[in-house]
Amino acid sequence: MNVVSFFAGAGGLDLGFEQAGFNVIWANEYDKDIWETYEKNHPNTIFDKRSIVDIPADEVPDCDGIIGGPPCQSWSAAGAARGIQDKRGQLFYDFIRILEAKQPKFFLAENVSGMLINKHSTALDGIKKLLKNAGVGYDLSFQMLNASDYNVPQDRKRVFFIGIRKDLGFKYEFPTETFPRITLETAIGDLKNKAVPALEYNNTNGAKCKVANHEYMIGGFSTMFMSRNRVRNWDEQSFTIQAGGRHAPIHPQAPKMKLIEKDVRIFVPGKEHLYRRLSVRECARIQTFPNDFIFHYKKVAAGYKMIGNAVPVNLAKFLAQSIMKQLKSNENSVPQAQKTANSISF
């Protein structure tokens, strides 16, 4: 089955679908800092670099599915949370515009859990209605998932919209299966003592890294960062990998931060040298990108950004497999049901 991808980023969602047996025939990403990474890791995918607002629907290939993660900053509870009032939030409407024109068998859209806060309820209801009514209509399934339940070693809550075209005669059911949680030791333990700091001004070490992308951002920590513990132990899972390198979790070699007073923590005295940010490669591992997926950038911040914005590959694969399975199990029964219904005379 062929799919097209919007807001593709580095391609975590795309890679998961490919691993599940889908063909990502065409993808779109507007951020030039990501272009080289996507093209070199997805050589068989036609890559469109325009903003989605400038893409006529008839220039998007016909496909079985449309997938994507419209920009999430507008919906983040930790940010301004302007939602649909922000131009980035409005890009959801262009995703729906393409969906309505192409009418694929299914779609998947991913976004942050901040969409669920009360101030966004009206906008969220509106988006759901538009998705359901796109073209001939879609049966919409909507659920928040924690990636930690799906072979991803981090706490990461995200919402998923999955729609099945109404004429196919069934509604997608989110799987109830979950998996044992993967620890940081399992995910990144073999990378101990191999990371290198970024160069001055957080420029990349490039090919000088003995392990590709195994470098970490340097520089101070904000008072906001220091307001909470940012360390998880080796036998725990990571905090959410975010798009900002300065907000990357601290490596588990360090002891948990010491509480001084409400919203004020410090690094344990005498252990300060142990407190470094997770490297770009460690973040990629935690997002379940394979080792041969290489991120290309000049500033390490760009590496953190494309990884933090990605859908974890293992979660994407799991959902893609379930979509494939449900489509195949229903593809023979639906036409027969339609024939039976059409044969009834009144």
From TrEMBL:
<dbReference type="InterPro" id="IPR050390">
    <property type="entry name" value="C5-Methyltransferase"/>
</dbReference>
<dbReference type="GO" id="GO:0003677">
    <property type="term" value="F:DNA binding"/>
</dbReference>
<dbReference type="InterPro" id="IPR018117">
    <property type="entry name" value="C5_DNA_meth_AS"/>
</dbReference>
<dbReference type="InterPro" id="IPR029063">
    <property type="entry name" value="SAM-dependent_MTases_sf"/>
</dbReference>
<dbReference type="InterPro" id="IPR001525">
    <property type="entry name" value="C5_MeTfrase"/>
</dbReference>
<keyword id="KW-0808">Transferase</keyword>
<dbReference type="GO" id="GO:0009307">
    <property type="term" value="P:DNA restriction-modification system"/>
</dbReference>
<keyword id="KW-0680">Restriction system</keyword>
<dbReference type="GO" id="GO:0044027">
    <property type="term" value="P:negative regulation of gene expression via chromosomal CpG island methylation"/>
</dbReference>
<protein>
    <recommendedName>
        <fullName>Cytosine-specific methyltransferase</fullName>
        <ecNumber>2.1.1.37</ecNumber>
    </recommendedName>
</protein>
<dbReference type="GO" id="GO:0032259">
    <property type="term" value="P:methylation"/>
</dbReference>
<dbReference type="GO" id="GO:0003886">
    <property type="term" value="F:DNA (cytosine-5-)-methyltransferase activity"/>
</dbReference>
<keyword id="KW-0489">Methyltransferase</keyword>
<comment type="similarity">
    <text>Belongs to the class I-like SAM-binding methyltransferase superfamily. C5-methyltransferase family.</text>
</comment>
<feature type="active site">
    <location>
        <position position="72"/>
    </location>
</feature>
<dbReference type="InterPro" id="IPR031303">
    <property type="entry name" value="C5_meth_CS"/>
</dbReference>
<dbReference type="Pfam" id="PF00145">
    <property type="entry name" value="DNA_methylase"/>
</dbReference>
<keyword id="KW-0949">S-adenosyl-L-methionine</keyword>
